Amino acid sequence: MTDTTPFGTRLRTALDTRGQLCVGIDPHGSLLTAWGLNDDLAGLETFSRTVVEALADRVAVLKPQAAFFERFGSRGIAVLERSVAEAREAGALVLMDAKRGDIGSTMAAYAETFLAPDSPLFSDALTVSPYLGFGSLQPAVDLAHANGCGLFALALTSNPEGHEVQRAVGADGQSVAQAVLRRLAAENAGAEPLGSFGAVVGATLADAGVDLAINGPLLAPGVGAQGATAADLPRVFGDQVRNVVPSVSRDVLKHGPSVQALRQAAQVFVDDVRAVTN
């Protein structure tokens, strides 16, 4: 039976008990090669199973990047299905990094793919793009509410190109990013201890320059290989730092294929974040 406890409630517990860390499962070709694996289906499966074995019973969130599995077609998707199921069974919350965004029945189909309990890709949360208008995400919002799932909407991303859209100012004087954050805050109104509708806000930002008090989680890519450190989090996120979910991929994954080395690398990030958030 699916646990319909709101994602925000489950995430708050995971962050408080396992530490504030999301590790990406990003099996790109160069990383498979660095692990001594072939860039093929067998390499993909070995890589994914190893990451899940090493981390799913100890980190708060695992974040598979769907594109790296999709490039192998249906057999890659089958590996993704198994990875999601095994990670959730081991206790990790699974955030599917698919950045879906569309309108009407197409958005509803994307939502059903990742947020319907009878789907083989059912995940605890999904990254979404609000740049066809936040209202276009309503099918995913509705299904997330119904099934205890979460969404993470792109707000202020860590890539420099994002600013031309996200920092653009509308007729009301608000930036696009602030408008997205305002809508997320509305979805999270009254939720305790944490809302289920989060924002993606890059840890590499010099200054967020927006109100991040959305009563929801803030997924923070950019820690590690992109240059941000745990020490940067209080500066960027201020009094919302306790709700930050730092997302690290390469700086943990490069320590594979050793299970023990992966665990040690993840623990270093957990300890570093705990030191600055406490």
Describe this structure in words.
The chain is α/β, with parallel strands linked by helices. The protein has a single domain, classed as Alpha-Beta Barrel (TIM Barrel). It contains 12 helices and 8 strands. The protein has helices spanning 7-18, 29-34, 41-55, 66-70, 73-89, 104-115, 138-147, 163-166, 176-188, 233-237, 250-253, 259-277, and strands at residues 22-25, 61-64, 93-100, 125-128, 150-156, 197-201, 218-221, 244-248. Helix 10 (233-237) links the parallel strand 7 and strand 8 (244-248). The radius of gyration is 18 Å and the shape is globular.
Question: What's the quick description here?
Answer:
With 278 residues, this protein is an alpha/beta fold. It contains 12 helices and 8 strands.
Summarize the topology:
Elements: H1 7-18, E1 22-25, H2 29-34, H3 41-55, E2 61-64, H4 66-70, H5 73-89, E3 93-100, H6 104-115, E4 125-128, H7 138-147, E5 150-156, H8 163-166, H9 176-188, E6 197-201, E7 218-221, H10 233-237, E8 244-248, H11 250-253, H12 259-277
Parallel strand pairs: 1-2, 1-8, 2-3, 3-4, 4-5, 5-6, 6-7, 7-8
Give the rounded overall mean pLDDT. 95
Strand-and-helix sequence, N→C? Answer: HEHHEHHEHEHEHHEEHEHH
Straight-line distance between termini: 36 Å
- Report the CATH architecture: Alpha-Beta Barrel
Largest β sheet strand count, sense and barrel closure: 8 strands, parallel, barrel
Tally of helical segments: 12
Question: Which superfamily, in CATH terms, is the homologous superfamily?
Answer: Aldolase class I
Radius of gyration: 18 Å
Tally of DSSP β-strands? 8
CATH top level class name: Alpha Beta
Question: Percent of residues in beta strands?
Answer: 5-15%
Biggest sheet strand order reads: 1-2-3-4-5-6-7-8
| Shape estimate | globular
Helix content: 40-55%
Keywords: Decarboxylase, Lyase, Pyrimidine biosynthesis
Pfam family, one: OMPdecase
EC number: 4.1.1.23
GO molecular function: orotidine-5'-phosphate decarboxylase activity
